[in-house]
Amino acid sequence: MVKAVVLGAAGGIGQPLALLLKANPLVTELGLFDIVNTPGVAADLSHISTPAKVEGYLPPDDGLKKALTGADIVVIPAGVPRKPGMTRDDLFKINAGIVKDLATGIATTAPKAFVLVISNPVNSTVPIVAEVFKKHNVYDPKRLFGVTTLDVVRASTFVSEILGNLSLSKEVVVPVVGGHSGVTIVPLLSQSSHPLPAGIATSDYEALVKRIQFGGDEVVKAKQGAGSATLSMAFAGAEFAGKVIRAVKGEKGITAPTFVSLASDPAGAAALTKELGQELEFFSSTVELGTEGVVKIHPLGTITDAEKALVKAAIPELETNIKTGTNYVAEAYKKAEEDGPSRL
Ligand SMILES: NC(=O)c1ccc[n+]([C@@H]2O[C@H](COP(=O)([O-])OP(=O)(O)OC[C@H]3O[C@@H](n4cnc5c(N)ncnc54)[C@H](O)[C@@H]3O)[C@@H](O)[C@H]2O)c1
Ligand SMILES: O=C(O)C[C@H](O)C(=O)O
């Protein structure tokens, strides 16, 4: 039995993600929560002939609590998307509060659930969830993931395009490490399961790296103000959620790059920290998944000088993003204490 819950389920990502989770035969219950439209989305999905029982909830009458009760895995795509000219950090002001409130709901109702954060800026929203869970004394770093799978999906697609064979894209595996925004997105193309053409021009390699790092901008620009990636994100989110579910059900050897706390595997973190040359609280690296979540954080391994430079360039922004999330929760709790009795 697996209950999956989507928070933000009526949105551009939420709806197709809920569809793909409904199509996953391992999901037996699907809880959908949003501030609008979930009863309609749930009624629609409930007619699909797969095992999951679907329920939609809204905020009145404790909808969040009802959606989360009994949750095994919670995926969060709630929040505002970018418009042209915005960075993911520009979303922080609105999305930080949304994610903090939803994390409070999870901490109080489903503290053992695996939590997959899609809401941007991921480099900051994941630390927000961690800090809220710490405040509620329910933090298990092995169970919290920032979803960076879209970067991996893009890398597979763009590499297979360069290799002239899109049908390869399902098989092409490129570790993408670091974080999920601009220069913090670091594709390790030297470790691609399918090497780039021998003698690829430096300018072509650099253009590919840039396209993977800024693939989100391509979609934001093409949507002309109507939002950011939704369908490709739903595909990526369902892919990652599917891996977590399979691992939790006991399948061995499942790995994926994902943005995790380095406290989730201190031994793996020690090796990674040595490679990075400094400590970071969160980092996206290839992670082995198991029944309790993170089993092992893999090191970067052998990488080229160009990739070392990309990793180095990612670190300052990652550090700032992580601090932004952590400080936000500290300040919110401090303010709540000063203001007196609160709902935190
Ligand atoms: N991690 C990634 O790779 C990745 C990829 C694409 C988009 N995103 C991010 O995902 C988020 C959602 O994008 P979208 O295109 O689906 O946006 P959207 O506006 O289409 O949908 C967001 C949904 O969240 C809901 N929502 C708002 N406040 C809520 C709350 N307090 N509780 C529950 N639901 C709430 C809205 O009602 C809406 O239905 C954005 O922050 C976007 O930047 C992340
Ligand atoms: O680009 C965005 O804002 C959405 C998402 O993070 C993406 O990578 O497509």
Detail the topology: elements first, then pairings.
Layout: E1 3-7, H1 14-22, E2 29-33, H2 38-45, E3 53-57, H3 63-68, E4 73-76, H4 92-109, E5 114-117, H5 122-135, E6 144-146, H6 149-162, E7 176-178, E8 185-187, H7 202-213, H8 215-222, H9 231-248, E9 254-261, H10 266-276, E10 282-290, E11 293-297, H11 305-339
Parallel strand pairs: 1-2, 1-4, 2-3, 4-5, 5-6
Antiparallel strand pairs: 7-8, 9-10, 10-11
Bound molecules: nicotinamide-adenine-dinucleotide (NAD) and (2S)-2-hydroxybutanedioic acid.
Nicotinamide-adenine-dinucleotide binds at residues 7-8, 10-14, 33-36, 77-82, 91, 95, 98, 101-102, 118-120, 122, 147, 150, 180, 227-230, 233.
Organism: Tricholomella constricta
GO biological process, one term: tricarboxylic acid cycle
Domain Lactate/malate dehydrogenase N-terminal: 3-146
Fourth CATH level, the homologous superfamily of the largest domain: Lactate dehydrogenase/glycoside hydrolase, family 4, C-terminal
Q: Name the CATH architecture of the largest domain.
A: Alpha-Beta Complex
Residue stretches low in confidence (pLDDT < 50, at least 5 long) are none
Helix-strand topology string: EHEHEHEHEHEHEEHHHEHEEH
CATH class of the largest domain: Alpha Beta
Ligands in the structure? nicotinamide-adenine-dinucleotide, (2S)-2-hydroxybutanedioic acid
Q: Quaternary state, please?
A: single chain
The number of helical segments is 11
Decide which structural class fits the backbone: alpha/beta
Q: Kindly report how far apart the N and C termini lie.
A: 31 Å
What is the number of strand segments?
11
Query: Which bin fits the share of residues in helices?
Result: 40-55%
